[in-house]
Amino acid sequence: MKRMSVLMAVAFVDMIGLMLVLPLLPLYALHLHASATTIGFLTASFPVAQLLASPVWGRVSDRYGRRPALLVGLTASSLAYVVFGFAGSLWLLFVSRFIQGLGGGTTGVAQAYVADTMAPHERAKALGWLSAATSLGVVIGPVVGSFAARAGQSAPGLVAAALCLCNVAFAWKWLPESRVLPKHATTASGRHVPPPEPRPVLNAMWDVIRHPGRPAAQLIWIYAVAMLAYNSAPAVFTLYLSWRFGIDVTNIGWFFTVFGGIGVLMRAFVVGPINDRLGEVRTMRVGATLYALGYALLPLASSVPLFLLFQVLLPLGTALLFPATSALVSHRTDQHEFGLMMGVQQGLRGVASVAGPIWAGLAYQHLGPRVPFYACAVIIACALLLASRVPRGEPVPVAA
Asked: Residue 387 in contact with residue 329, Cβ under 8 Å?
């Protein structure tokens, strides 16, 4: 629990930095005369870098430890925020997002840290706690960003960079290593056998793509499909609120605060009991149902209060869907490949995250502002269909 507490604190501060700048990104790009389609590509630059980095960081952490990977990721994020703070052109905004994506590739490493630290039956709950810490950052970050924006365009990026550097120092001193690096085993005959090596990154990625029905791959695909919707909405969320209700940089943060606040309460107090009562598979299905319903209702809101009411369904769904799915992936993965498979999961999330903002920006611009939200509801319904085929019962890890 001490390790989990420190990891949660690190994730919390890291998310504050991210959410300081994320809601402002589309508005800054608009100021630089970017179109909705360009903003979609700008949003996608983060997951492009994450796609490249996640599986590599996962394998590196399996071999050398979780702590070094997390420290490098935090350092990259601090550099990205400095670039954001001084970005006076669109290409610098792209550079900032790409560097941040390289650092954000350690998300799977943090999940592997949880798998190292917690017993199998507690992983969904622990992943919920980790998500609660990040959701609390989602609550605080946008509000801080909106206030910082009043001090000048550079202020949010520089504040985020300062927070991230403090986070690096905190993690360096207080975050212990969770990975027990394997040693040579001794057979009955006295021969020393080297520990199993994680598979090459491309081999593991291709195995998940080629055999989507295998236990771990099945869950990774559900996660990736749901993330296609999750990462599509931010590209147009701010634009839609600006178009529909006249929201600007001074008050956009409150909508993200509602999302994060509900997410914190769900993950801290609800996810564990629901998972204990329903099991991870049914919890995943309930989450997907609520999530799809939220996207379907958002375009129907005729006022800000009604929009906020429908928006509540989104964090309710994600709080149940994603921690349960990640926990099931860890159950179906060999221990020496926790980091690798979590990295593959984040890599496929990166693919979905690249495609999501691009198609959402194009759909918003050419088909109408409401279309991306209805499309996200359909995408989550597809994830629910996949989840309905996951067998219930205690999963068994499968050898590579």
From this structure: no
